[in-house]
Design goal:
The chain is 0% helix and 48% strand. The protein is mostly beta strands. Strands 12, 16, 17, 18, 19 and 20 form a six-stranded antiparallel sheet that branches.
Length: 275
């Protein structure tokens, strides 16, 4: 192939001037003082001669994998000159972000240059900050599941039906919600304070803020008492137990174990905080 060589008389940046045929206006192509390759070499822009590799339209939008600018259901990558980025992928995540080496933010959300929130990673998971950048604004824990509930008196024992001993929980940040139903199958000389187990340890806060009261309802058919009664709950910091009381209009607040019979239902619907 013949070679055309244009050689300037000085070092530095080269400028090639081409006259536009329609307007007879001189247009310039500026070349750096280094090799620039167009074609199959690397680096290059290569379409293999049979397709458009990249499109920059008249509005200065950059399009890859598509030839028309739109924000519909189309696939491909689009970066508009006004700052909008539109990405579409079929059957997979359209955006993959990876932070190497250190923990910290992956995405920062800013308003007029000031950070208002972020999404980031730690060695154990991900977090999101909302309404600020401090620890109080950070949500870094979510979990949901089930566990086997127990009722443990100070002495003796309360055995639960296997079909009525599962509780479900949802943990969002430091707030835990537990719900379900426990039914006593056998009462073996149970007496004294009765505790139910919890999926996470109760937090410890100032001014007894770790000791919330909670009220639910249960149906009891035990010890000659039949009917619905108020169930009271009392937490103690740094434990995974909550004390359960039963209150009715006759006997006042008593322990679950004080009902000597069986068949007591305890409906659980409680919330508490962890550290």
């Amino acid at each position: 192939m013949a070679k055309v060589k244009i050689q300037g008389n000085a070092s530095g940046t080269g400028v090639l001037t081409v006259t536009a045929p329609n307007t007879s206006t001189d247009r310039t192509i500026t070349l750096p003082d280094e090799d620039v390759t167009l074609g199959a070499a690397t680096p290059s822009i290569d379409d293999n001669g049979d397709a458009t590799a990249i499109t920059i339209d008249s509005s200065e939008n950059v399009l890859v994998g598509k030839t028309t600018s739109d924000t519909g259901n189309s696939l491909g990558f689009e970066a508009r000159q006004n700052g909008l980025v539109n990405i579409g992928r079929d059957g997979g995540e359209p955006l993959l972000l990876n932070r190497n080496t250190s923990e910290g933010d992956i995405v920062a959300f800013r308003k007029d240059g000031t950070t208002k929130g972020s999404i980031g990673v730690t060695s154990s998971g991900a977090y999101i900050t909302l309404g600020g950048t401090g620890a109080a604004n950070t949500l870094d824990d979510y979990e949901e599941g089930t566990y086997t509930g127990t009722l443990t008196p100070a002495s003796g024992s309360l055995a639960l039906y296997s079909g009525h001993d599962t509780l479900s929980y949802t943990k969002i940040g430091r707030m835990v919600h537990v719900q379900g139903k426990l039914t006593v199958q056998t009462n073996s000389s149970a007496t004294g304070a009765t505790n139910m187990n919890l999926p996470f340890t109760v937090g410890s806060f100032t001014d007894s803020a770790d000791r919330p009261g909670c009220v639910t309802y249960g149906y009891f058919n035990a010890g000659g008492l039949n009917g619905s009664y108020t169930v009271l709950w009392e937490w103690t910091a740094n434990t995974n137990q909550v004390r359960v009381y039963v209150k009715n209009s006759v006997s006042g607040a008593v322990n679950v174990s004080d009902y000597s019979g069986t068949g007591a239902d305890v409906f659980v619907n409680i919330m508490y905080e962890v550290d």
